[in-house]
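Input (structure):
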């Protein structure tokens, strides 16, 4: 629900994540990162098989802190 593919002609194919909404989601547990309150989001992004990266998958970790809500 928080990740969408851009339909903008300028950024066609870009993936956009709503970090503020993720941080505010009660069902995603609050943790700690270097002593700071954080929500840690892990996901795998797989490229198109006909694109320049030929269907490769990449694991990503994004750390969201409370600063995102300010």
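Output (sequence):
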């Amino acid at each position: 629900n928080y990740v969408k593919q851009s339909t903008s002609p300028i950024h066609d194919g870009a993936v956009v994540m709503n970090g503020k909404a993720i941080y505010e989601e009660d069902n995603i547990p609050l943790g700690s990162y270097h002593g700071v309150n954080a929500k840690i989001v892990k996901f795998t992004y797989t490229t198109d098989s006909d694109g320049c990266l030929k269907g490769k998958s990449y694991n990503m970790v994004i750390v969201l802190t409370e600063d995102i809500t300010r």
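Notes: The mean pLDDT is 89. Helices lie at 19-24.
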